[in-house]
């Protein structure tokens, strides 16, 4: 009997679990400590699950900072929008 498909919420929970595990491993041991097996073990998933969600380890590591970069970009855009003068935008 086939396993039922994961809900979007379940998929997001697995994604966050993998990211959290990778982040913890990175903080503890640096980039050299990151491996698919180490992340999978810490997250409680298979190695294949990591590749299914992120494509490769580079995709996983990029996912850890892309959201933060986008949020910071939003902050910069909001600050710039407050000033009509281009020089004032840069200064802000």
Describe what is shown at a glance.
The chain starts with 7 loop residues before the first helix and ends with a helix. Helices cover 75% and strands 0% of the residues.
Tell me what the structure shows:
The protein has 92 residues and is mostly helical. The chain is built from 5 helices and no strands. Helix 1 crosses helix 2, helix 2 packs across helix 3 and helix 3 packs parallel to helix 4. It starts with 7 loop residues before the first helix and ends with a helix. The model has no long low-confidence stretch (mean pLDDT 91).
What descriptors fit this protein?
92 residues; mainly alpha
Measured by DSSP, the beta-strand proportion falls in under 5%
Radius of gyration: 18 Å
By DSSP (H or I, 4+ residues per run), the number of helices equals: 5
Overall pLDDT metric: 91
Q: What summary fits the major beta sheet?
A: none
Uncertain segments of ≥5 residues (pLDDT<50)?
A: none
Report, as a whole number of angstroms, the end-to-end distance: 60 Å
What is the helix fraction of residues, given as a range? over 70%
Write the layout of secondary structure elements.
Layout: H1 8-29, H2 36-43, H3 47-54, H4 57-81, H5 86-91
Helix pairs in contact: 1-2, 1-4, 2-3, 3-4
């Amino acid at each position: 009997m086939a396993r039922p498909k994961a809900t979007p919420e379940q998929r997001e929970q697995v994604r966050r679990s993998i990211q959290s595990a990778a982040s913890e491993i990175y903080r503890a041991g640096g980039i050299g400590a990151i491996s698919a097996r180490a992340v999978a073990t810490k997250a409680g998933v298979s190695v294949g699950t990591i590749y299914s969600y992120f494509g490769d380890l580079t995709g996983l590591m990029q996912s850890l900072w892309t959201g933060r970069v986008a949020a910071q970009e939003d902050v910069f855009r909001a600050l710039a929008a407050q000033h009509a003068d281009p020089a004032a935008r840069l200064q802000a």
